[in-house]
Design a protein that fits this description.
Four Helix Bundle (Hemerythrin (Met), subunit A); 275 residues; alpha/beta; Rossmann fold; globular
Length: 275
């Protein structure tokens, strides 16, 4: 995905530190982005509602709503369910990184920021987001989705691999750049939390709680995309499709697939560690 100079993509930066906003603004403007700023979470939410944005960057500590609360507010907004959101946090602060994913963040920016790679990092997130939207659109147009075979049935090719290697490679490069080991911990956290999330998805489905179901599926999807659990993220998108198109009975089929897909994904990561 190339940036169109005539219509640069717009990034919202929310941080009460003027110096940090200045550095991000200059870095992203030099990469070809248009940047708008907010000094706190409440202003960020107002700007989000009033302007067309392509990506949001939030600092954790801000007056009023903090970064987590702001992220959650944006995700609860009708037009905020899919927009990429990055939360800036110390990469060694595992609790904050995990909480960022819990409230719906797409990714995180490690502090201290690597200013040389920040622009490319934002481009990568936007490109991945665009590919996901195009895939979702294609699936929505595919009538065969209602009569699909399980994703692991039949011959499997690289496009249907349980793990998206380029995402995992990106995390490993980030780990190497920061010289702090965190990827294995993220993966272990994923496999310890997803079973509980899937149980809560099942409960929300049986209770016909569509709001809770939507929020939980977003968590499954974003957590899966973060570590490159491709099969799980695709199944979560199938569930989103079923909800948005009101094919309620299809959700149970996808839930069953998610349970089996989790074990396949877990085994794929185990095999990867052995190599």
């Amino acid at each position: 995905m190339t940036l169109n100079p005539a219509k640069a993509q717009t990034v919202l930066i929310a941080d009460d530190d003027a110096n940090f906003r200045f550095l991000i603004r200059k870095t992203l403007e030099n990469t070809g982005f248009r940047v708008v700023e907010a000094t706190n979470g409440d202003d960020a939410c107002t700007i989000f509602e009033q302007q067309a944005l392509d990506l949001v960057i939030l600092d954790i500590s801000m007056p009023g709503k903090d970064g987590f609360e702001t992220c959650e507010s944006i995700r609860n907004h009708q037009k905020g369910k899919a927009i990429p959101i990055l939360i800036a946090t110390g990469v060694d602060d595992v609790d904050s990184v995990q909480k960022a994913f819990d409230v719906g963040a797409t990714d995180f920016i490690a502090k201290p920021v690597n200013w040389l790679t920040l622009g490319q990092r934002v481009k990568f997130v936007l490109r991945s987001h665009q590919e996901t939207l195009e895939l979702f659109k294609q699936e929505s147009l595919n009538d065969a989705a209602f009569n699909r075979m399980p994703m692991w049935a039949g011959e499997e090719d690289s496009d249907d691999a349980p793990i998206q290697s380029n995402v995992l490679d990106h995390l490993r490069r980030l780990e190497k750049d920061t010289r702090i080991e965190f990827v294995d911990q993220l993966i272990e956290s994923y496999f310890s939390e997803i079973p509980d999330l899937l149980s809560r998805v099942q409960y929300a489905y049986e209770a016909n709680d569509r709001k809770a179901l939507n929020e939980l599926v977003i968590h499954v999807k974003t957590k899966s995309e973060m570590i490159g659990a491709r099969r799980m993220s695709m199944l979560a998108r199938e569930m989103e499709y079923a909800m948005y198109s009101n094919h309620w009975l299809m959700i149970q089929d996808v839930l069953d697939d998610l349970g089996r897909g989790l074990e396949i994904t877990r085994e794929a990561f185990r095999d990867l560690r052995k190599t």
